[in-house]
Design a protein that fits this description.
The protein is mostly helical. 28% of the residues lie in helices and 0% in strands.
């Protein structure tokens, strides 16, 4: 590498080759503790006062430990019958033979529900659609579909096609809104709209 000139502060230039050689030579070694640093305290010495702490000596690198020999498997113990030595709660199952287990919470069966007095809501009756509502829905859906077909098939956009598509949509929408708000005032006195007790 090229040598650098001395900087303006009177500091000699850094020898990069020597610095890299020192880094490579010290690779893998633990750096020395900085001056004034306290020694490492193992977990066994954490509760001791500061003056009683002795730094642990550094151990040499450990050699690989020999593989431990596999321990022989003990003979399997016969499993006790369920309930013979296990007690889930004091007094539960005490003195009851294993063949007839004591009834528990999972053995409970709910009583059959009684149909007496149970309210079954009637099926709602849908009003018959009149001719005006059918044509209004046809205009609301048919107007945009007609314009979409004209664009897809590249028809000439004449005045009657535009009027039929846009006017049909707006007219059908206005008809549906007008009929929806007008029907509520007629049945305000109907007592059948409340809850049934």
């Amino acid at each position: 590498m090229a040598e650098h000139e001395e900087s303006s502060g009177g500091v000699p230039p850094l020898d990069e080759e020597a610095a890299w050689a020192a880094i490579v030579a010290g690779y893998g070694q633990e750096p020395p503790d900085p001056p004034g640093a306290r020694p490492f305290r193992p977990i066994e010495n954490l509760m001791l006062p500061e003056e009683d702490v002795k730094p642990e000596p550094k151990a040499p690198p450990a050699e690989p430990a020999p593989e431990p020999k596999p321990e022989p498997k003990p003979a399997p113990k016969p499993e006790p019958e369920l309930g013979s030595s296990i007690t889930f709660a004091p007094g539960v199952g005490a003195g009851v033979p294993v063949s007839t287990p004591a009834p528990g919470p999972r053995d409970h069966t709910p009583a059959e529900p009684a149909d007496e007095g149970h309210f079954v809501p009637p099926e709602p009756e849908l009003p018959e659609a009149d001719t005006t509502a059918k044509f209004a829905w046809l205009a609301v859906v048919g107007g945009p579909v007609l314009l979409l077909l004209a664009v897809l098939f590249q028809w000439d956009m004449t005045w009657w096609l535009t009027t039929l598509g846009i006017g049909g949509f707006l007219g059908g929408f206005a008809t549906l809104i007008a009929r929806m708000s007008g029907g509520e005032d007629d049945d305000d006195d109907d007592p059948g709209r409340g809850a049934v007790v």
